[in-house]
Design a protein that fits this description.
eight-stranded mixed beta sheet, five-stranded mixed beta sheet, 15 strands, Heat Shock Protein 90, binds magnesium ion, Ribosomal Protein S5, domain 2, alpha+beta, 2 domains, binds adenosine-5'-diphosphate, globular
Length: about 350
């Protein structure tokens, strides 16, 4: 290399560009499951099956009965910055779907062997697509399948050894997958979900036809002990509707493994919101112990920005402080009503 060679610029080939993008969203097998579940939910599926082998490192397969992908769009589905979910700048201001970046399938496909099989309701045939070579040219073949979409991701990170090195044990990776699965199961009661690991059913929840069945699903996902201790709460403010289940302070955990927050149906890990709940439980739990809760916030889509981070785990509210304070107060009120209730039964 002489100096002039080193300073010339060339465009990255498609696969490499997609692999770089994958670095942001595809950290481990659970990230793949998260993206694919989001796609199935956005496609209006009422049944979703997740099959993984070897903690997802060997295989992740997601099958849904959603609206499917048109044959002529299969190539675009695997192309970066191609999406059916937004089309103009204004759409970014009120996102109604879980996805919108148009990056997941292209990214995952660049770091694995991905096969997409899909059939729309009005098509007699299914079509199967995969991206080949450095330019990721998409090859499409006819296939047999029921309406819906199936995505198979085999040998994740086989061509990105730097990432592969960070894979943990099969058990650890599967635990992360199960966590992602649980979050979506708690966010979508009307969808039937199944999770299999190495051909064995790990979790299965039927669709809930009515709210009376929610607690059964919550027991499957969070355990009967949580359900037995759960206080249901609901409140409505001008900017935000809040509801969910709070574990009584007498039920506490060493880990934060039963702490779920959803905004407009989207599972989030938001520091501000977690802080609000922690504040409400303050002084009610033994030192070092963790509260348990499942909380749903609903705000106008224009009041929340989900385009903050590629993984979409974080959000920003236009009225961050207000939402924080309303959440803290709602939880605190629900918990203290509970305490008064107990005192009323057992007067001193
Ligand atoms: P995004 O979800 O941000 O649009 P993706 O790369 O995840 O980007 O998916 C690209 C497109 O492929 C989606 O916009 C959608 O039209 C289509 N698609 C992906 N998965 C499914 C699915 N399971 N069912 C129907 N369409 C899908
Ligand atoms: Mg997506």
């Amino acid at each position: 290399h002489n100096l002039s060679d080193q300073t010339r610029i060339s465009l990255l080939d498609n696969r490499l560009a997609n692999q770089i993008a994958a670095g942001e969203v595809v950290e481990r097998p659970a990230s793949v499951v998260k993206e694919l579940l989001e796609n199935s939910i956005d496609a209006g599926a009422s049944r979703i099956e997740v099959d993984v082998e070897r903690g997802g490192a060997r295989l992740i397969r997601i099958t849904d009965n959603g609206r499917g992908i048109h044959k002529d769009d299969m190539g675009l589905a695997l192309t970066r910055h191609a999406t059916s979910k937004i089309s103009k700048t204004e759409d970014l201001g009120c996102i109604q779907t879980l996805g919108f970046r148009g990056e997941a399938l292209a990214s995952i496909s660049a770091v694995s062997r991905l096969t997409l099989t899909s059939r729309t309701r009005d098509s007699e045939l299914a079509w199967q697509a995969s991206a080949q070579g450095r330019d990721m040219a998409v090859d499409i073949q006819p296939a047999a399948a029921s309406p819906g979409t199936r995505i198979e991701v085999a040998d994740l990170f086989f061509n990105t050894p730097a990432r592969q090195k960070f894979l943990r044990t099969e058990k650890t990776e599967f635990n992360h997958i199960e966590e992602v699965f649980k979050r979506q199961a708690l966010a979508n009661f009307s969808i039937a979900f199944m999770l299999k690991h190495n051909h064995k059913i790990a979790k299965r929840v039927p669709a809930c036809a009515e709210p009376a069945q929610y607690l059964k699903r919550i027991a499957t996902i969070c355990g009967q002990q949580f359900v037995d201790s759960a206080i249901e709460f609901k409140c409505q403010h001008e900017v935000v509707k809040i509801s969910g289940w709070l574990g009584k302070p007498s039920f506490h955990r060493s880990e934060s493994d039963i702490q779920y927050v959803f905004i407009n149906g989207r599972p989030v890990k938001d520091k501000t919101l977690n802080h609000a709940v922690r504040q409400a439980y303050e002084g009610l739990l033994p030192p070092g112990r963790m509260a348990t809760y499942i909380i749903y916030l609903n705000v106008d889509a224009s009041q929340v920005d989900v385009n903050v981070h590629p993984t979409k785990h974080e959000v920003r509210f236009s009225e961050q402080r207000l939402v924080h304070d309303l959440l803290a107060k709602s939880v605190s009120d629900a918990l203290s009503e509970q305490v008064e209730f107990v005192e009323a039964i057992y007067p001193e």
